[in-house]
């Protein structure tokens, strides 16, 4: 039997405590215990669990026979704690040693299993203290992409990816049409790759390249070596049914090495069908998935994913929907309901690089742009879904209301630029005949004043509709009349006509409400009271089931 491996000897010489946990576990197959210890190590910054070694000094190798085929166990552990652990097996003269390396917890999120987070207290496992939990939550300010990547050199980067970034940066500067932008563009064109990286602030103060350089420009070999989970998987299926994908692509290199190829695959005509609609004398075509929201969704996944989690970014694409799944849930200060109002970047250095080349907005409003595109394309709003370890965003491709597209064209692009996402959400609610969210109701007055919306009726029965001006302009006058409804006199006459048909039997309120379906029951009651005051109809009782009759069919004098 060979001597002890030097790497194992170095581990044996380490101190049990914050970063090591030594257990004999000769035959003890305690998977639940392993999970708890892994959580505790992760919550204390990461470390190693060493099985088959005595926990008292001087440490002796006693050997362990647990989990001889450990790949299945490793995968199960990773799924339990949502982290990527690494397992190594050493054969020593005294037996087998199993070393499990546990990474630190995800930033701002304690490692937990079975709804409990763990830490160590001397030789015992205890629930994570509130003080330690608070420290972890406060780590949101840390930026994984700005941390040094040990062992990464410029030779590990893809020159083509660096040139793709340089071109995007130069084009962004030239687009400003300013003299200073032209000067900066000329200077950047002359930089070598090392200086380009330094100007982008992708070097640490100790001279080491940052993780952001690997994520953005790393070669396939470098990414697989340093950060294998920094991968994007794209699958296309003709239907949403499960089964083999018609196309599957795996991108295992820096972002600037694959982002253009990915969009080309998404935009292939059979995968991104065009939808036609009439606009005046012309027929326009609209892609199911526009480039800007797709790119924003992908950039959002790259910028905000948690790179300490072991899973990949996954894109599932059908002709009618495109879903982007990103490892890592929303940060504590952001919820699905506040996505459009609050931003909490997980990897700020990545976002800064994208900002330099004009790929993302400095205001961090990428999600707003995605929602705005869906509204002005008359599509279903994007569907976000957040879980503790994953964020999912689905873009919907089907145009639901072509007439609304023509309506917006009549409003005009210049005028539409005056409105923010919240104003567009109000228009979308009115288009769908849905209630305007309470938070957006103060914005209605401006849209009414600007002539985009009209109020119908007043008080509790008030409704909003798209304005007459634009509805008529797009040939939707009949739809406008239907949405606005008949005037009071016409509605009263409809009720009288129905009562005449019912003769002496009369009709109760629920039945009369069906005669004027655009009105609420209380509005129908108001019209019936007016008819009673005019002496044209009456009711013998007060309940909703009491029939109303024409005055001509009264069996006795109607009530005053």
Low-confidence segments, given as residue ranges, are 555-560
Strand order of the largest sheet: 9-8-12-13-15-14
> Average pLDDT, to the nearest integer?
85
Number of helices in the DSSP assignment = 22
Write the layout of secondary structure elements.
Elements: H1 6-12, E1 20-23, H2 31-43, E2 47-51, H3 70-81, E3 86-92, E4 95-102, E5 112-113, E6 116-121, E7 124-127, H4 130-137, H5 159-174, H6 179-189, H7 193-199, H8 211-217, H9 220-226, E8 232-236, E9 247-251, H10 259-266, E10 274-279, E11 282-287, H11 291-304, E12 313-317, E13 321-327, H12 348-356, H13 366-376, E14 383-387, E15 390-396, H14 402-411, H15 413-416, H16 421-431, H17 444-449, E16 453-456, E17 463-466, H18 468-473, H19 477-484, H20 488-502, H21 509-515, H22 521-533, E18 537-539, E19 548-550
Parallel strand pairs: 1-2, 8-12
Antiparallel strand pairs: 2-4, 3-4, 5-6, 6-7, 8-9, 10-11, 12-13, 13-15, 14-15, 16-17, 18-19
Helix pairs in contact: 2-3, 5-6, 11-13, 13-16
Main attributes of the structure:
560 residues; alpha+beta; Methyltransferase, Cobalt-precorrin-4 Transmethylase, Domain 2; Heat Shock Protein 90; 6-stranded mixed sheet; 4-stranded mixed sheet; 19 strands; disordered C terminus
Give a structural overview.
- The protein folds into 5 domains: 6-141, Methyltransferase, Cobalt-precorrin-4 Transmethylase, Domain 2; 154-226, no CATH class; 232-396, Heat Shock Protein 90, CATH 3.30.565; 402-484, Arc Repressor Mutant, subunit A, CATH 1.10.10; 488-553, Arc Repressor Mutant, subunit A, CATH 1.10.10.
- The protein has 22 helices and 19 strands.
- A hairpin with a 2-residue loop joins β3 and β4 (95-102).
């Amino acid at each position: 039997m060979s001597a002890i491996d030097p790497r194992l000897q170095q581990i044996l010489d380490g101190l049990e405590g914050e970063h090591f946990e030594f257990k004999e576990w000769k035959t003890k197959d305690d998977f639940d215990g392993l999970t708890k210890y892994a959580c505790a190590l992760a919550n204390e910054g990461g470390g190693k669990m060493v099985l088959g070694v005595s926990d008292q000094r001087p440490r002796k190798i006693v050997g362990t026979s647990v989990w001889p085929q450990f790949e299945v166990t490793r995968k199960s552990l990773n799924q339990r704690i949502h982290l990527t652990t690494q397992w190594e097996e050493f054969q020593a003269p005294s037996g087998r040693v199993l070393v499990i390396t546990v990474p630190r917890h995800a930033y701002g999120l304690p490692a937990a299993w079975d709804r409990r987070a763990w830490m160590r207290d001397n030789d015992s496992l205890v629930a994570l203290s509130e003080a330690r939990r608070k420290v972890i939550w406060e780590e949101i300010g840390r930026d994984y992409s700005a941390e040094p990547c040990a062992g990464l050199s410029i030779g590990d980067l893809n020159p083509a990816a660096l040139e793709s970034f340089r071109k995007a940066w130069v084009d962004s500067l030239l687009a400003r049409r300013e003299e200073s932008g032209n000067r900066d563009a000329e200077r950047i064109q002359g930089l070598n790759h090392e200086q380009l990286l330094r100007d982008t602030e992708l070097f640490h103060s100790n001279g080491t390249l940052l993780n952001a350089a690997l994520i953005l420009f790393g070669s396939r070999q470098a990414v697989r070596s340093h950060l294998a989970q920094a991968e994007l998987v794209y699958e296309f299926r003709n239907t949403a049914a499960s089964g083999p994908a018609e196309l599957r692509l795996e991108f295992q290199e820096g972002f600037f090495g694959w982002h253009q190829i990915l969009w080309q695959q998404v935009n292939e005509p059979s995968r991104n069908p065009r939808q036609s609609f009439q606009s005046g004398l012309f027929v326009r075509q609209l892609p199911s998935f526009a480039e800007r929201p797709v790119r924003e969704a992908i950039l959002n996944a790259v910028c905000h994913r948690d790179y300490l989690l072991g899973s990949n970014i996954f894109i599932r694409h059908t002709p009618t929907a495109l879903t982007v799944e990103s490892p890592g849930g929303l940060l504590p200060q952001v919820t699905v309901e506040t996505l459009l109002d609050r931003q909490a970047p997980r990897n700020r250095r990545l976002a800064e690089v994208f900002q330099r080349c004009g790929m993302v907005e400095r205001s961090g409003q990428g999600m707003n742009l995605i929602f705005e595109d869906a509204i002005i394309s008359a599509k279903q709003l994007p569907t976000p879904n957040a879980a503790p370890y994953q964020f999912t965003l689905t873009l919907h491709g089907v145009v639901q209301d072509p007439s609304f597209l023509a309506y917006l064209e009549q409003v005009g692009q210049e005028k539409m630029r005056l409105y923010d996402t919240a104003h567009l959400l109000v228009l979308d609610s009115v288009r769908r005949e849905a209630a305007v969210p309470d938070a957006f109701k103060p914005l209605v007055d401006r849209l009414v004043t600007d002539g985009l919306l009209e109020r119908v009726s007043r008080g509790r029965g008030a409704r909003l509709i798209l304005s007459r001006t634009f509805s008529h302009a797009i040939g939707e006058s009949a739809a406008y009349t239907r949405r606005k409804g008949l005037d009071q006199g016409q509605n009263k006459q409809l009720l009288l006509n129905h009562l005449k048909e019912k003769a002496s039997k009369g009709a109760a309120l629920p039945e009369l409400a069906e005669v004027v379906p655009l009105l609420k029951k209380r509005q129908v009651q108001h019209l019936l009271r007016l008819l009673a005051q005019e002496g044209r109809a009456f009711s013998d009782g007060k309940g909703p089931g009491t029939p109303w009759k024409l005055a001509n069919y009264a069996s006795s004098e109607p009530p005053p």
